[in-house]
Design goal:
Length: 213
């Protein structure tokens, strides 16, 4: 299996992107409830994770004891977890006509490892293509929030930062700029949502996009 030949396979496939504490996880749950109320079967899959192997990779990636993990190794670990998720969960569930909502997907790799870590974009794109088998979500919701506000939300929550969240403000500014570039490049798929709005308004905008896509 090299690439996905069925171009319509992704019609029930949505992803959410954004830096941590942007509110995307809340919006994912709200969209799931909306879809299920209409009789659909919906699966939320997080990245990295979602399978037994992928969850073990996640533990390595987020462990603060691994601060010395090289950026290239980080890229390949995220991509390895993604391959396993694609093969075990995403493709089979989409083939059954189920809905998939991914809490992060391949755009996180482009933003975090490509722009944030400064890896060569051409290499990142090639690895992404290989890891996804060429299958992208039909809609990607980018819940946009500036890194300073995201940091305030994390500190207010009292949640301890994991390895990636400990990368510093300069890193997250690069990630945010990366998301902006991705959004402009793939504007038909990427939908930018202002994450500073109240959650009900964000949800309303998301539903409007889903209904008219």
């Amino acid at each position: 299996m090299n690439t996905i030949n069925n171009k319509n396979l992704n019609k029930h496939f949505y992803s959410f992107e954004g830096i941590d504490f942007s509110g995307k996880t809340t919006q994912i749950k709200m969209l799931q409830a909306w879809l299920e109320n209409r009789g659909n079967t919906v699966h939320i899959l997080r990245e990295p994770g979602g399978t037994e192997i992928s969850e073990k990779v996640r533990a390595i990636l987020l462990d603060k004891e691994h601060m010395h993990l090289h950026a290239r190794a980080e890229l390949l670990l995220y991509s390895a977890a993604r391959v396993q998720l694609m093969i075990e969960k995403i493709i089979p569930l989409l083939e059954k006509g189920h809905y998939i909502i991914a809490d992060r997907f391949v755009d996180s790799t482009t933003a975090y490892q490509g722009f944030g870590r400064g890896l060569e974009q051409e290499i990142v794109e090639q690895v992404n293509q290989f890891a996804t088998l060429g299958l992208l979500p039909s809609i990607t919701f980018y819940v946009k929030l500036n890194p300073e506000e995201a940091l305030k939300r994390r500190l207010k929550s009292g949640q301890e930062a994991d390895r990636l969240e400990s990368s510093g403000m300069e890193f997250f500014n690069k990630v945010s700029k990366g998301y902006e570039i991705i959004a402009k490049k793939d504007y038909k798929r990427f939908q930018i949502i202002d994450g500073s709005q109240v959650m009900e308004e964000i949800h309303r905008q998301i539903i409007e996009i889903v209904m008219h896509k």
